[in-house]
Design brief:
7 helices, 16% strand, alpha+beta, four-stranded antiparallel sheet, 229 residues, two-stranded antiparallel ribbon, 2 domains, Alpha-Beta Plaits
């Protein structure tokens, strides 16, 4: 460990002030990057999470060292980690295209809380290093991730006459190595030509227009159209 931090690892007023200020600073660094991208959990949220986790860790140490209570000093910290999961879950949303957004923000909030716990426990080196790594992950590594080619996802609506027709279409999708993300089927009572309707969410490398042309030529398919891309 770095010896310069040895004098401020104890539970006293100076250590408390330094820990809280450092937690505030580390939370602010991570939060600034999230705020710059208009994420739901931004500057102030990350500061509060880091500060709250920090004081929780300090309180655990105080109860054991300062107050002399024979308590499990890791219990408060473990509850903080569990609580951070609920906070992070509030930033995760599922769009109409069945894609998930907010996972990076949720993970960042959870990690920021752990940084606060590390700083509050006197593990300054770990908290500072992880703060730097989180910032690199959300900036430099984000640019690398955006450059990775992803398979397109889109949804199609099928109108067909019988169940065998849908089975044939689904086999066709699998033969083309397309992943079926979601499937919703309903019967039609007032349609003249079709008996069933199916909404299929797909992920694959085939363009939607090329796929629809082939599906419309299959037996029992009344129509095939793209819902969203």
């Amino acid at each position: 460990m770095i010896s310069i931090f040895d004098r401020i690892r104890d539970v006293d007023f100076l250590s408390l002030v330094i820990k809280l200020l450092l937690a505030c600073f580390c939370g602010a660094i991570v939060g600034l990057e999230r705020s710059s991208k208009n994420r739901p959990a931004g500057f102030r949220t990350h500061i509060l999470v880091c500060l709250g986790a920090c004081i929780a860790a300090v309180t655990s140490l105080y109860l054991y060292l300062g107050a002399g209570l024979t308590a499990d000093i890791s219990r408060i910290s473990s509850q903080v980690i569990s609580g951070l999961g609920f906070i992070g879950a509030g930033t995760i949303i599922i769009t109409k295209k069945m894609t998930i957004k907010g996972l990076t923000t949720a993970a960042g909030l959870w990690t920021t809380g752990i940084i606060g716990l590390a700083i509050g426990s006197g593990f300054y080196e770990g908290g500072i290093i992880v703060t730097i790594l989180v910032l690199l992950t959300e900036t430099v590594f984000a640019a690398i991730g955006e450059g990775i080619q992803k398979r397109p996802m889109y949804a199609v609506e099928l109108l067909y006459t019988d169940k065998d027709s849908l089975d044939e279409v689904l086999r066709f999708f699998k033969d083309k190595r397309m992943a079926i993300v979601n499937l919703h089927i309903q019967s039609l009572e007032e349609h003249e030509n079709a008996s069933y309707s199916a909404e299929v969410t797909l992920r694959g490398g085939i363009k939607a227009q090329d796929l629809l042309i082939q599906v419309q030529q299959m037996s029992g398919i009344v129509s095939a159209s793209e819902i969203w891309e």
